[in-house]
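2024-03-11 09:14:02 INFO receiving multi-entity request
2024-03-11 09:14:02 INFO entity count = two
2024-03-11 09:14:03 INFO echoing inputs for audit
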Amino acid sequence: MNFAYYPGCSAKGSSSDYESSTQAVCRALDITLEEIPGWNCCGSTPAHAVDTELSAALCVRNLDIAARQGADLLLTPCPSCLSNLRAAARRMEKPAFRQRVNELLDAPAAETFPEVTSVMQGIARQIDRETLAARVQTSLKGLRLAAYYGCLMSRPSELMRFEDPENPLLMEGLLSACGAEMVDFPLKTACCGASFGIPERAMTARNSGRILELARRLGVDAVVTACPLCQMNLDLRQKQAGRACETSFHLPVLYFTQMLGLALGLKRNELGLNKLAVSANGLLEKMDNLRRADAVEGGRS
Amino acid sequence: MRIGVFICHCGSNIAGTVDCAKVAHIARAYPDVVYATDPMYTCAEPGQAAIEAAIHEYKLDGVVVASCSPRMHEPTFRRTVERAGLNRYMFEMANIREHVSWIGKDMEANTNKAAELVRLAVEKLRNNVPLTAKQFDVNKRVLVIGGGVAGIQAALDCADGGVPVVLVEREATIGGKMAKLDKTFPTVDCSACILGPKMVDVAQHPNITLYACAEVEDVSGYVGNFTVKIRKRATYVDWSKCTGCGACTEKCPSKKSPDAFNEFTGTTTAISIAFPQAIPKKAVINPQHCRQLTKGKCGVCAKVCPTGAINYDMQDEIVTEEVGSIVAATGYDLMDWSVYGEYGGGNYPDVITALQYERLMSASGPTGGHIVRPSDGREPKNIVFVQCVGSRDKSVGRPYCSGFCCMYTAKQAILTKDHIPDSQSFVFYMDIRAPGKMYDEFTRRAIEEYGTEYIRGRVSQIYPNGNGRLTVMGVDTLLGRQVEIQADLVVLAVGIEASKGSPQLAEKLRISYDSYGFFMESHVKLKPVETNTAGVFLAGVCQGAKDIPASVAQGSAAAAKVLALFAKHKLESDPQIAQVDMRRCVACGKCIRCCPFGAIKETEFRGEAKAQVVETVCQGCGLCTSTCPQGAIQLSHATDNQILAEVNALCQC
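2024-03-11 09:21:47 INFO inference complete, emitting structure
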């Protein structure tokens, strides 16, 4: 199955591990991602904060490329890109807005755009639970994980159409199919502080700290994310978050694609685990021990 | 015919956008109109006197008033013309306010439309004939539906007035929601202590027949002569033998039956008596949990019952009661708050409703009046109250205020401090609505004397924080900052909605209800207990949110209406009903099949089958008249000729 793919800027930089694990997992699941040629930044947070039309024009250019490629579905791993692309497509339904944006583009945009959805939803649409479970090479059984979606993946609900906006369960479905024990994580859609890590570091540290604190209390082995910025705040800024909570954390924060990759038995260097600021070695060791114990158990019986 | 026309100014309501003098001038040219004028307020005493004077002076035999909607003042003007000696049906009304002046600003167009509507009324009136009401007997018994405090009050007042009362209660005991409350605001009286005696009065009153575990199945008839079918649900206990001794409930081995009276905060036995002061104090078997009824073996209660009252073969029973009036007092239920996923949607045991909290505080509740956390039985120290959960919230389709939550929350905060002196209560509120007598003083007491911390803002999320407590995240809109509280127990002031089955009951009673299931009063200000169906009255929260004093007042008000109705020995029937022209009727029977009231029956006239209208049952809906292929059934006061005269007039305008 082929999908048009929009990686987003962070995939080529700060979240290259998300990108490599996404590519690896999709390959393993026979999902071919065709990166749309000549794509540009979606505008991220700054663009839409400054100018609605200019920001939409950035997104529409990408949508237009995908449309001209004949794609029905455009996948992106990043919730922020997803939000911008979907919002732009929605706004373009209004003729006056469409006209203003078309004036900013070299040529008028296509009349209809492919539907944009997250890589997570794309995988879930293609691979049902049983199929995924059958592909598992190294079960995640014995691991206790918290699924953390971040605030953007499911909101605003009428735009994102991502299950129950307060309590999405898609990631839990994928990872539990791989054997993991998913805790009920009430802060799964709380904000990590997002891009305020730069102008309001204390606030981001507090927000991320709250999420990590709850995860630690629930006794999880790792927090699993779907957003490059969330991952960065929880992982790279974990020390800052710890200081804000007057404690220190040591909690691996992985992308869901990295977790899936581990379950599918993909090579660990392919999943970019070495990019994590908080080492996942303890987690990997636990996994190895669990599976070794399984093997011994299996040998005995 | 000599017709007089009165074009009302209604102050500036009509005259502001309609040239009333010009309409009167135009009306003078209409056929049979001998007099037309444009008074300032036609409904006022001088206005009515002017109509009477004109009838005498110009020897009028018909009157048209062009003013407001006939809903309010048609009866007024009918009485006016009657006082002057005309038949009350020799009167027509043209609505030039709601249908003209309030909806258009163009003076010329409005004036033309008003003149046309007056012409319609004149043409209708020219085809009118005097009609006379027939008199019929009143059955001076009343049905009260719902045994909450409003229904109890209505039943007692009617019974004290000498009227036999049939009181129907869906649950096993009367008392309604008030019986579940621990204390009442603002006096902090024990709820059971002030309601209990009234419940006993109901049980002992010679004029009251109580059916508990019963529901109204069907209502037919009309004011003065309703026939009501009541379904008495099988309780599997013969109440004529049951003494309420409770031996069965002690020995029943099935102890996991859901305890509805305790708002599911605990469980009860499969055979149970709702609470110690229950009226009637009779045992009821829950058939879903009774081992004898589900598995066919047990029979413990039958063995221990000293009076042999247990009857596992009992079936539902339908009883029929004849009454002259009905009071609906069906109360409310809590809305389904599980739509609030951010509050756990019902999955966190220590997030409970305020009604459940009442049961935890009540000495007759599942914890004997000790406030403990449902999850682990520990005494909570930090208690967070969240108001407006399902009230004033358009996002869940509940835009209205539930009225009494602000007050009971203050009460619960006060009682919490009394129960647990080292506790701290927090209240998240939108506005404190305390307009009743001694109400605001009461909420101030909760804040100032009891140290309850009131936080103006909404709660965004409640979640278990992994160390056994709940984190409550909210906003303080007065300080403009986020608030986070570690709570042991969260109490939600869940909004109310009309009790389950209200729309279905409204259909049976032929009364209106709003989109939330609350019954519609006849006039929101001036007829708050009447409905648009004669003889059916409302009491309590079934009509809209209200607290105990207001419910009691409305119960008494409904009783006053019943007693006033029953003060008459005869009632007059509305003559605006269907009439069969025997010469045209071919006895096809279509009218009999289409009549929703069963008001048409087949009869024999000179050896031929014919349709006949039962005058007291006919509601004048007109379905039969438009169904009859022969035009043999005509609705008095809305005959084909009258309607065609109006259509003709309109087409000629």
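2024-03-11 09:21:48 INFO post-check: The two ends of chain B are 21 Å apart (CA to CA).
2024-03-11 09:21:48 INFO post-check: The mean pLDDT of chain B is 95.
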